[in-house]
Amino acid sequence: MMKPDTPTNDPKKIPRVRLPADARPDTLAVREGLPRTAWGENSEALFLTSSFVQPDAATAAARFANEEEAFTYSRFSNPTVMMMERRLAALEGTSGCIATSSGMAAILLLVMGLLKAGDHIVCSQSVFGSTIRLLQGEFSKFGVQSSFVSQTDVAEWQAAIRPNTRLLFAESPTNPLTEVCDIRALTAVAHAHGAWLAVDNCFCSPALQRPVDYGADFIIHSGTKYLDGQGRVIAGAICGAAELVEQKFVPVMRSCGMSLSPFNAWVVLKGMETLSIRMREQSARALQLAAWLEAQPAVARVYYPGLASHPQHALAMAQQGGMGGAVLSFVVRGGAAANPVGAASDARARAFAVIDHTQVCSITANLGDTKTTITHPASTSHGRLTEDQRHAAGITQGLIRVAVGLDDVEDLKADLQRGLATL
Ligand SMILES: *Cc1c(COP(=O)(O)O)cnc(C)c1O
Q1: pTM for the structure as a whole
Q2: Would the pLDDT of 339 be above 80?
Q3: How far lies 133's CA from each of 9, 148, 202, 387, in Å?
């Protein structure tokens, strides 16, 4: 558990909230941040200001030279953004955190901060699609090469390591098939070669999984998902050791400006107050829905880490605090088409029928919302892949992803049953 520093009277440091050194995550989730202003506000203040007035020229010089910690300009830091960073760091158990304008900006900052031309990344082939495009499409232009390996086969990660490998990048569980990787095993592979391990912790959030507990060096977040939790803003962050955040990421942020807006930071900050109860409740509902789906004759297969049928069920339960998370996928049973092309288009039609018969679920590719969302990965998030690439990734035309929110689970069953009954 992260222990907040004792409050300091050092005028050259930004002070800490006065909290017991052993305050637990639920308390930190509602209280970690910055001390109240002189007005004594109980809810965190929203500092919508681009710059900060300095008391005199000499102090301004000291602050711009980083000799003194203070706010100068909101591209560098902002009190509302810092409250979000401190709160997220407290939940992830890291000493540092830097907020970014989106989850993708966090991955951009991670690679820009840690790597240079000639370096190499080993990444799971099952990570978020935009992550693959960023590494493969954008960073290869600047001489940073990436190899993509199995999410679950540690030997493949090991075999992909080169002398210039500096970073291993994983995400667990993955979207949409909920494959789980062994974070502790990947840490061992990374550290044996002097490389860092970064874990995208979007799907579990620190409420269910803390990658640093298994040795990960950096945690990536899309605050857009469960941290906000109500589908309102785009936000992101990197958590890690404060010295590394300071050395590797702060200078890049200052010159590149992928800064989080104070308003979005404030929304995420308030979202984190209910993160733990939302994650637990949404996971419990997802488990109920997954178990029900598994018993439906029109469903061929359900992917959900909380089910005993999941290939990494035991690992997931150990790594994710005994919970499966709130995202599940299922495959509708195929039709009677004789050839593969006919079967694929038939499977797509059947999946579309289930999606289009819903009245409660939102048809959208986003996730992490209190409103349950439903999507057809093969034609949306994975629509830019060829059918062969999709096949290799296990994203078939009959696959449907549901990100379970706080809707009544009986309404969700009825919502899916409407379409399943037509198959
Ligand atoms: C959504 C998502 C991202 C990207 O986050 P944005 O905030 O949309 O930029 C990265 N990783 C995972 C796992 C995601 O689900």
Answers
A1: 0.95
A2: no
A3: 47, 12, 18, 17
